[in-house]
Design a protein that fits this description.
The protein is 11% helix and 40% strand. InterPro entries: ChW. Pfam families: ChW.
Length: 467
């Protein structure tokens, strides 16, 4: 057979389509039927019409190749080779594969979201900015924060990002008010985080920082009244201090005058009476048994003894440090906060945390690693969606990292994202009514989601981790 692509190179925009003609001539001496099959990386969005062509000897036929790349990161920008496998029915061993080149134009699309959009605090707030690159080319952006009146300061880690197509990054943000509210009720301060890219309109994400007062207003009123009363009392005391006069001096003078003899009539001396000594008071022996017999509180009652405190529960960091001391290499330890049960004991390196078949969801996870450069994560709740949790969502080697929340008011987890700077994290989540979903692993330094599909909102019941 003889083939020709017209044109051999084509260009297409993601979300649109383009057509290339493929001409085929039967150079044999028998009637033959040819089957057409697209192959290569663009075959998923390539169609051939018609898929088969029947030609007499010496005749030529034409089929159309239609390329329709989606407007997603899967349509990689730049040149993409393509090919069509042509198989003749009469001579299946003489397969021909004409090749061409399809150039996909680049497009950029960035989405950003604050998690959570509203944070509360007296001295600082810590939201996280999630940035998704849903285009087909790498995005480089810088980050900044602003508000009306310059009432907040912003600390963004990192301050600039590079995001590959189809990837997402999380930026840790710390908001600090420039003035502290010492007394009074809370105040809402709107702010905005901006993602700036070269040659594109800045993308602003709005949020709210609710600043709480350090002390309630009623306490300020009570302190003011107390200070005013104290000052008034001191002033009154100084102004109307009572005059205190003692009569001891006058009485002593009168007693001395009465005791002196009169000079003109001296009194005859009388025989002195023998001095009578007063009997000494009988001594009372000291009761040394008063502490043991007199009081029942200081004996074996136990009030004077300190109560024995219960030992602190073991965390994931405690377990992974013990494991690292026994065995070199990368390790991960973790424990689950299960509804109606609380924190379980930590397990390590692929063991099951949580429960299966008991309809008890996981509300929070405590994870710690060694030899991975630390671990970072975030939890997705069934009702609230992404939520930063009660404690630290990123941690260094051998330090506890927490995902989710143990609060009664928050729904259980449906999934999580996780990454380590060095190496990969593999996980297998167990979802209600779905069972074990299978093992998924992160790329080195990249994020990976594990759990229920976000639209299904099914609770997470158990999980396994390895590094």
């Amino acid at each position: 057979m003889w083939t020709s692509l017209e044109p051999a190179s084509a260009t297409v925009d993601p979300g649109s389509r383009t057509t290339v003609r493929l001409r085929v001539r039967n150079t044999g001496d028998v009637v033959d039927e040819y089957r057409f099959e697209p192959v290569g990386p663009v075959a998923a969005w390539t169609t051939v019409e018609p898929p088969t062509l029947r030609l007499f000897p010496g005749t030529t036929g034409t089929v159309e190749l239609t390329f329709a790349p989606p407007r997603t990161p899967d349509a990689a920008a730049g040149p993409n080779p393509y090919a069509v496998r042509i198989t003749p029915t009469e001579h299946p061993d003489t397969v021909t594969v004409p090749e061409g080149n399809l150039t996909v134009t680049p497009f950029t699309e960035v989405r950003a979201e604050l998690v959570p959009p509203t944070v509360k605090g007296r001295f600082r707030g810590r939201p996280r900015l999630a940035i998704d690159n849903v285009g087909n080319t790498r995005v480089t952006a810088s980050l900044s924060g602003s508000d009306n009146g310059d009432r907040l300061s912003y600390e963004l880690q990192p301050g600039s990002v590079q995001i590959e197509p189809g990837r997402a990054v999380f930026v840790d943000t710390t908001l600090r008010p420039r003035q502290i509210i010492w007394f009074g009720s809370k105040e809402e301060q709107p702010y905005s985080l901006t993602v700036r890219r070269s040659g594109a309109q800045p993308l602003a994400v709005d949020g709210t920082f609710v600043q709480r007062g350090f002390l309630p207003r009623w306490l300020a009123t009570a302190l003011s009244v107390s200070v005013a009363l104290a000052i008034a009392f001191v002033m009154i005391w100084l102004a109307y201090k009572p005059q205190v006069r003692t009569l001891a001096t006058e009485k002593a003078a009168q007693a001395e005058v009465t005791a002196l003899p009169t000079p003109s009539a001296p009194a005859p001396s009388a025989p002195s009476a023998p001095a009578v000594s007063e009997p000494a008071a009988p001594s009372v022996p000291e009761d040394k048994s008063g502490d043991s017999a007199g009081g029942g509180d200081s004996g074996s009652g136990g009030e004077g003894e300190e109560e024995e405190q219960a030992p602190e529960p073991e965390t994931a960091a405690d377990a992974v440090q013990k494991l690292a001391a026994r065995s070199d290499g990368r390790h991960v330890c973790y424990r689950a906060y299960v509804a109606d049960q609380g924190w379980q004991d930590p397990v390590c390196d692929g063991a099951i945390a949580g429960t299966t078949g008991q309809n008890l969801p996981i509300k929070a996870l405590n994870i710690a690693t060694v030899a991975t450069g630390g671990v970072t994560g975030n939890g997705a709740h069934v009702n609230e969606g992404w939520y930063t949790g009660d404690k630290w969502s990123n941690a260094a080697d051998g330090v506890d990292m927490y995902i989710g929340s143990t609060k009664e008011a928050l729904s259980p987890l449906q999934g999580f994202t996780i990454k380590t700077p060095d190496g990969s994290v593999c996980f297998n989540p167990h979802i209600r009514d779905r069972g074990w979903l299978g093992v998924g692993c992160t790329e080195p330094g990249g994020w990976k989601y594990g759990g229920s599909p976000m639209g299904d909102k099914l609770q997470l019941e158990a999980v396994r981790f390895t590094v």
